[in-house]
Amino acid sequence: MQAMAKTRKKIKKAPCSLLILIWNRLLCTNLLNLVKITPTNNPRPNVMATSDWIEQLSKDPVGAALIDNKLLTVGFTLDPKSWPSADISPPFHWDSVEFNEANAKNIPEEPGLYAFVLQLPYSGLPPHGWVMYIGESGHGDSKHNLRARFKNYHAEQKKFKRIQTFLMLNAWKGHLLFFYTILPSRKHELKDLETKLLDAFRPPYSRGGYSASLLKPQAAY
Question: What is the value of pTM for the model shown?
């Protein structure tokens, strides 16, 4: 409290923009102290067991706003009029692995589509899942493949690069499933197929790739 009082005295003469910046940083510092939770004995790690990634976010003004406003709050658009775009023939065959580095070897070096999905890891539940992100790898003449993309995301999980992706990979670390379908014979269709799935699911952490009718200015974060 004494430190806060001293800070208030120092900033009385500061410009308004500086006052706002200092106050936001103080709020972020207090939030970081609140979210340090002791790990439990659950089979999967507690998503908030470490604040290292939150500290990285807090150093960026936009990331700090994310922490303040909606750290674990996710909004979905559920528009039945868009769902038919996911009715693709022939239907895809999807496989999945837990998103961790050890599973990189299980991802084929093939082009295809992928999705990050959250599911509760317990038996006796109705079919469910939250599709958080959809992407493609290996479109057209690209040399990229699903395994390489899987590894890229692990690098992004450790090093702050894209705010939304960094948040998704760390806020639900240990709980994300990586779904993939290999489509070597449809390399030149991958962008269009990705767009159809994006339009149907509207995953909250996919920021581009939608059809022109659905594209809209994204929030600053």
Answer: 0.69
